Amino acid sequence: MTTHATPSSSPSSTLSTPAVTVRAPRPADVDALVAAALAEDLGTGGDVTARATVPDDATGAAVVVAREAGVVSGLDFVAAAFEQVDPRLVVEPLAADGDRVPAGTPLARVTGPTRGIVTGERVALNFLGLLSGVATATARLVDEVAGTGARVVDTRKTVPGLRAAQKRAVRHGGGSNHRLGLHDAVMVKDNHIALAGGVTAVLERLAEGPEAPGHMVRVEVEVDTLEQLGELAAFDRARAEAGRRPVVDVVLLDNMGPARVRDAVALLRGAGLRPVVEVSGGVAPGGAARALAEAGADVLSSGALTHSARWLDVALEDEPA
């Protein structure tokens, strides 16, 4: 926290109220994830190398650096890692999550007991590299579809335990989040349809079933073929003609190329329906994302953003005395 006094506006002014700059609180998952990672790294013996080679009273400084261009995400984890290793360590952020930085950019400065700096290094860099990689991959995909109006979103294909952090990284890269988990939206996928007896059977249960979602819960249904989409469109068009609310808010077109996406959008519009059109399958940086967006996708969902993004190359470099 940094504080400074606000200058008086006149000699007769009463004592002014200090202006205070307050760092935003860390997301709730950060400290627990860092503690688990440090416990894994330190085991029961601690950092035997640091104890053997670095004097107990030594102090120093180091800088976390991006060795390549990318988008930053995970600086809260950097601060938490060093502070949990030794509360005497001070971490000064030199960049912010969401920043697009060139190679060589300093991201944070760490000062204090040298043992703590070398002990916390790997955990701090692991989180930062992984999450910045997600943010960088997301930014690349967002850039590819710029101007089309389509939004880039993530999926639930995340590292177990790191979902919230990876989804924040997607936002840092300019993307948006799909549902967080099974609890916050209805998403009917191919296995639901197969096991429940088909598209119409699923829609009937969603509309009138004993556990049908309430009006505040959005419903998304995945289709693999135009035939399935036609069945869905006929069901909701009949409801609309009867003066009833359509069941489906979002249609997910799975593994359809641009031509089929264009046909699917035309089918829906021809039925007088305007659900959000999401496209998944093969959506990744350097792929067909722009063509899919131009074909009519409102949303492009990509599991690759979180399960296949290459880590950003980050390092800890000594700062000369």
TrEMBL record:
Subunit and partners: Hexamer formed by 3 homodimers.
GO cellular component terms listed in the entry, alphabetical order: cytoplasm
Entry's Gene Ontology molecular function annotations: nicotinate-nucleotide diphosphorylase (carboxylating) activity
A Pfam entry, by short name: QRPTase_C
Domain Quinolinate phosphoribosyl transferase N-terminal: 47-132
Binding residues for substrate: 122, 155-157, 179, 189, 222, 254, 280-282, 302-304
EC number: 2.4.2.19
PANTHER family listed in its UniProt record: NICOTINATE-NUCLEOTIDE PYROPHOSPHORYLASE [CARBOXYLATING]
Keyword Nucleotide-binding among record annotations: no
GO annotation, biological process: NAD+ biosynthetic process; quinolinate catabolic process
Domain of life: Bacteria
Family affiliation: Belongs to the NadC/ModD family.
Name of the protein: Nicotinate-nucleotide pyrophosphorylase [carboxylating]
Keyword Cell inner membrane: no
Compositionally skewed regions (Low complexity) per UniProt: 1-22
Swiss-Prot/TrEMBL catalytic activity: nicotinate beta-D-ribonucleotide + CO2 + diphosphate = quinolinate + 5-phospho-alpha-D-ribose 1-diphosphate + 2 H(+)
Function description: Involved in the catabolism of quinolinic acid (QA).
Keyword vocabulary terms for this entry: Glycosyltransferase, Pyridine nucleotide biosynthesis, Transferase
Listed pathway(s): Cofactor biosynthesis; NAD(+) biosynthesis; nicotinate D-ribonucleotide from quinolinate: step 1/1
Species this protein is from: Kytococcus schroeteri
Every Quinolinate phosphoribosyl transferase C-terminal domain range: 134-316
SUPFAM superfamilies for the chain: Nicotinate/Quinolinate PRTase C-terminal domain-like, Nicotinate/Quinolinate PRTase N-terminal domain-like
Region feature Disordered, mapped onto this chain: 1-23
